[in-house]
Amino acid sequence: MTRRRFLLTLLLAVPAGQTQANWWERAQDLLRGVTGGSTTTSGLTQAEIIDGLREALRIGTDNVVSRLGAPGGFLNDPRIRIPLPYGLNRAQEQLSRVGLSGMLDDLEVRMNRAAEAATPRARALFVNAIRDMSIQDAQSILNGPDDAATRYFESRMREPLGTEMRPIVDETLSDAGAVRVHDDLMRRYRSIPFLPEVDTDLSGHVVDRALDGVFHYLAVEEAAIRQDPARRTTELLRKVFGSGG
User: Fold this and answer.
1) Phi, psi dihedrals of residue 136, rounded to the nearest 5°
2) Which of 50, 68, 151, 168 pairs as cysteine with 73 (C-beta 3.0–4.6 A)?
3) Closest Cα partner for 236 from 14, 85, 51?
4) pLDDT, tens digit, 9 for 90 and up, residues 140-181
């Protein structure tokens, strides 16, 4: 059975009158109906049910990466916009009084642009993680709490994602002049007495906050997948889940 045919069969297995919000629960019921390697009463195997979950997660993670990797993905979103490093943000008002407001604003923009440039590196890692997901992992996600998939990805991928994104952030910050702006700002900052210490690892700060943003929206996407796969905008899921009960 092809993936598309499986997903269509899963949709048709939902009794008339059930809403699309019950898709996740229906998949759980079907999975619980599998014993060993046999099929459910709907003719679906465990592997086919898990394959459907992988497909939904693949599309969900792709939505997140596409959204945050676009211009303004971080900069224009107040929920995940990357702030100035600790210390600079605390002293922002004092620094503005001595004419450094423009430099602070410029640095913040460049940091968010670097995160947007680095985020597309996450796409291949998510694809690989979903492909390599074991049946046991998928079962735990399907039957776990509302953010089970997000926590699964974060526990396994935060470190490798940071490693992949760091060189892009380094290069983007350097090319955009952010490193120069930061170094110049820090020289002036240190000449002002009684200001707090500042996290000087600019790239590390950007990568860490970028990952926070990725996993924030991954949790949002997971909730949407669990509640209503029909709201996904890909052709595949429109075709499979588009007809509501």
Assistant:
1) -65, -40
2) 68
3) 51
4) 887 888 889 899 999 999 999 999 999 999 999 888 778 888
**Distance (Å, rounded) from C-alpha 185 to C-alpha 162?**
26
pLDDT digits (tens, 9 = 90+) for 43-74: 556 676 677 778 788 888 999 999 999 999 99
Over the chain, what HEC string results?
CCHHHHHHHHHHCCCCCCCHHHHHHHHHHHHHCCCCCCECCCCCEHHHHHHHHHHHHHHHHHHHHHHHCCCCCCCCCCCCCCCCCCCCCCCHHHHHHCCCHHHHHHHHHHHHHHHHHHHHHHHHHHHHHHHCCCHHHHHHHHHCCCCHHHHHHHHHHHHHHHHHHHHHHHHHHHHCCHHHHHHHHHHHHHCCCCCCCCCCCHHHHHHHHHHHHHHHHHHHHHHHHHHCHHHCCCHHHHHHHCCCC
142: Cα within 13 Å, side-chain hemisphere: 27
Tokens of 48: 């086919």
The partner residues of 45 in beta bridges, in order of sequence, read 39
Cβ contacts of residue 238 below 8 Å, gap of 6+? Answer: 230, 232
Alpha carbons 207 and 163: distance in angstroms, whole number: 9
Radius of gyration of the chain (CA): 22
The tens digit of pLDDT for each residue in 182-201 reads: 788 778 777 777 777 776 78
